[in-house]
Amino acid sequence: MTASPPDQVRTKPLLAVIFDMDGVLVDSYRAHWQSWHFMADELGKGLTEEQFVTTFGRTSREIIAEHWGADCLTSAEIAEFDRRKEALYRDIVAHDFPAMDGATDLIKSLHNAGFKLAVGSSGPPENVALAVERLGAAPYFDALVTGKDVTRGKPDPQVFLVAAERLKVSPGNCAVVEDAPVGIAAANSAGMASIALLSTGHTAESVAAARLIVHSLRELSPDLIAKLIAKN
User: What pTM did the predictor assign?
Assistant: First the structure.
C-alpha cells in the first residue's frame, strides 16, 4: 500500500477551551459581593445582592458607570473606584483563595490531551494573574485575555474572539466554560460551543442557552468537550 500524498494526509484540528475566571476557575461570589458592598458604602448608594448578581460577566468600569451614573462621575473617578474595588477583592481572596473544585485537574487533563487553553475574563489582569498563580496553572495556559484587552464587555463576544485569535484556533473549534448568562450569550455569538457551570447565583433556567450545563467541573473531560465541539 502506498502512502497518501502529503496534501491528502488528514490531521486532527487544533481544539481549544476558553475559561471564564470568576465563578468558573475561582469560586469568587462571596469575595466579589463583599468588595462591591464596601465600594457601595463608600459611594453612598447601596447595592443589593440581587443587583450584584445581574453584573456577572461585565467589567467593573461598566458596572460603576451604570449603577452610580456616568453623569455623576468623571472617567478618572470611575477608573479610580475600579482600581480600589478590585484591590479590595484581591485582598479578600489572597487570604483564603477559593479555587473552584476540579479546576486544576480539568486544566491539566485538557493540556495533556493537546487542547490549547486560555482565560477569557472581564476582570483586570491582576485578578487573572492571581488566580492562575494560585491554581498553579500558569504552565498550561497559552493566552490570558482580560478586561484590559477589550473595549466591550460580555455579552459582546470580543473577549472570546480575541482569545481564539491569540490561540490561533478557529472559533468553531473552541469551547467556552462560563457561569453567567451574558458569558453564554457571548460564547454563542462567537460561534463557540458553550458550557455552563452552575456556580453560586445562577440557575439552569438562566443559562438555558448553553450547549451543555454541568453542576461541577468534574463532569467535564477532554473527550466530552471534543465531542461537543465536533457537534457545534
Answer: 0.82
Enumerate residues 6+ apart whose C-beta is below 8 A from 37: 47
Same-domain status, 71 and 128? no
What is the distance between the alpha carbons of residues 100 and 188, in angstroms, rounded to a whole number?
24
Counting DSSP H helices and E strands in the chain, the numbers are: 9, 6
Cα angle for residues 181, 22, 81 (degrees, 5° grid): 100
Residue 192: pLDDT band with limits 50, 70, 90:
very high
Measure the CA–CA gap between 204 and 219, rounded to whole angstroms.
16
**Residue ranges making up the domain that contains 36:** 29-95
Per-residue pLDDT of 165-188, as tens digits, reads: 999 999 999 999 999 999 999 999
User: C-alpha angle 27/148/190, rounded to 5°?
Assistant: 75
Mean confidence (pLDDT) of the chain: 89
Is the domain of 68 the same as that of 120?
Answer: no
Q: Which three cell numbers stand for residue 198?
A: 452552575
Rounded Cα distance between 111 and 212, Å, is 21
What is the domain-level CATH number for residue 168? 3.40.50.1000
Q: 35 and 76: one domain?
A: yes
> What is the rounded distance in angstroms from the CA atom of residue 26 to the CA atom of residue 100?
5
